[in-house]
Write a structure and sequence with these properties.
With 153 residues, the protein is mainly α. The chain has one domain (2-149). Helix content is 71%, strand content 0%. It contains eight helices and no strands. It is elongated, with a radius of gyration of 16 Å. The model is unreliable at 19-44 (pLDDT under 50).
């Protein structure tokens, strides 16, 4: 029962962090080069991930970066990498963000909304944000959907 209560609490904290981050990212503006100005407040969601056990951490970053659940084998493999200290959590997040599946997901989102692949610069920006935890692929989708809904502005 305590484990269930803890998991519910962690999900609640993540939801609050997500809502906070979402409102913060809506409030931040883009520079001329399309790069997001990030202040310390946007790292709220990332700091909440520190309280998750390794398995829940892997599941969360997988969903945030790739937009899907990770299978049990993937969880086990990535937990082993973390517990054996082959990678830190940050390195793992960055590697998943730079991976082929993440890059394909970014392109898929761009194709869905803009009918084209992301440019190398756009992929680099989103990969960096996904890797440092200041964005999720849902942020990419929300940003492009908003762009399209506002007539490209």
């Amino acid at each position: 029962m305590k484990i269930l209560q803890r998991n519910v609490f962690v999900l609640f904290v993540l939801l609050l962090g997500s809502l906070f981050y979402s409102s913060l990212s809506q409030a931040t503006s883009l520079s001329n080069q399309g790069e997001k100005k990030v202040d310390d407040g946007s790292r709220f969601l990332i700091s909440q991930l520190d309280y998750l056990n390794d398995a829940d951490y892997v599941k969360t970053i997988w969903y945030n970066i790739l937009g899907r659940e990770v299978d049990d084998y993937g969880v086990g493999m990535h937990v082993q990498i973390l517990t054996s200290k082959q990678q830190t959590r940050q390195q793992m997040r960055e590697n998943i963000a730079r991976g082929e599946e993440s890059q394909m997901r970014i392109n898929d989102i761009y194709n869905r909304y803009l009918y084209r692949d992301a440019t190398p610069s756009e992929r680099r920006i989103w990969t960096e944000r996904l890797g440092n935890g200041t964005a999720t692929t849902f942020d990419v989708e929300t940003r492009l959907q908003s762009y399209v809904n506002n007539g490209g502005k």
